[in-house]
Amino acid sequence: MNAPDHLPATPVTGTASPGAGAPPGRGEDAGQVSAVRAALPRAVGGGLAVIVLGCLPLLALTIPGVLPGYTYEPGTLQLLGLCWLTAALALTYHLLLGVVGLLSFGHALYFAAGVYGLAVVLERTDIPLLPAAAVVLAGGVLLAGVIGAISLRVTGISFAMVTLAFAQAGNVLVRRDPADLTGGEEGIALATGGVPDAFVGVVNTRNLYWVALAVLVVTYLVALWIERSRAGHMAAAVRENETRVRIIGGRPYVVKLVVFVLAATLATMVGTAYLLLQSGASPAVSTADFTLTILVMVVLGGVGSRWGAVVGAVLYTVLDQRLGEFAGSEAVAGLPAVLRVPLSEPMFLLGTCFILVVMFLPGGIAGAASRAVDRVRRRGPRGPGGQGSAGPGERPVAEAVPS
């Protein structure tokens, strides 16, 4: 919110000069206070949402057709935990695409580094879980720094192709397993020797659910901090016009590298939690197809929106996990062949949903929600004259709300 153009003068002695106003900084302070007041309801709502989600394992709730059972059952907690981790991973891709405007086809590489890195460290060493995760995160930072420093020498589709090449190389190493570390096509199971008993076994799925939720909250807060920091503002400027940033003395390469490394590090952290939840690693997490899946989640929710990335990832994960049951149901089996054949393919249904969202909801789910809120604000409560509730001399609601 911009400070007012003129503030009433408060002279101490003598005659106030024209334009004399409040002490320097009062306008900025008022703007900061207004920003805090505007953000407070969202912060309170977000905190309450986290509390509610944290209490789900203690409740007996269910959504027929969406959840496989009650929220306290291991199967449901497994699905919800997977939703929170994929949402956190989508947030890390949001930092690349939505904040700094980098289209990467190799983001899954860092997620796979977290999954396989922790699995290998736990299997080949006696290091406990937390120190092992710290070692893997350090490795993720190093990997992202090296690849980012090389990839960001080019821009646009060339950058996307370079990241794809690195991701494909990583996938080949995982599948071929030349060092006898990753288990090849069969993957690698979680070695539970260094893992606390509270995170091992189906009976402890509740604890893994809380870990997944904590990872999502941490990732969201870090993404929020990055976006509101000086580096985040510079990244947004680079996204809009990199040449102009360079002309005014900015360093777009450094800004993009910082955001790239932070996003990759967060993806590595999400990968370590994914290993615990799934109790193993498979080559599927290292493929370029998996990166495209993350991209679909972000586009589905709305590029540039944090909560859109979360909603898109959760929706995609639930559909991906539950459409298989619908495709194999008796209702589909009894349909004519012209309908039964396509509806029996879960990926066809998922792709159709994505196409419909892209065609009829530009800006994704977040964009559609934003437009709906704007329409409500423009209408406002109807007064006697058919306008909004603004009184005499006041602006209508749609004009009073800053864009």
Descriptive overview:
It contains 16 helices and two strands. The chain is globular. Helices cover 66% and strands 1% of the residues. With 403 residues, the protein is mainly α. It starts with 25 loop residues before the first helix and ends with a helix. The chain has helices spanning 26-55, 74-99, 108-124, 129-151, 156-176, 205-228, 230-240, 242-247, 252-278, 288-301, 306-327, 330-333, 337-343, 346-360, 364-379, 397-400; strands spanning 188-189, 280-281. Strands 1-2 form a two-stranded antiparallel ribbon. 33% of the residues are buried. It has a domain at 63-286.
Keywords:
403 residues; mainly alpha; two-stranded antiparallel ribbon; 16 helices; 66% helix; disordered N terminus; cell membrane
Question: How are the secondary structure elements laid out?
Answer:
Layout: H1 26-55, H2 74-99, H3 108-124, H4 129-151, H5 156-176, E1 188-189, H6 205-228, H7 230-240, H8 242-247, H9 252-278, E2 280-281, H10 288-301, H11 306-327, H12 330-333, H13 337-343, H14 346-360, H15 364-379, H16 397-400
Helix pairs in contact: 2-6, 2-9, 2-10, 2-11, 3-4, 3-9, 4-9, 6-7, 6-9, 7-9, 10-11, 10-15, 11-14, 11-15
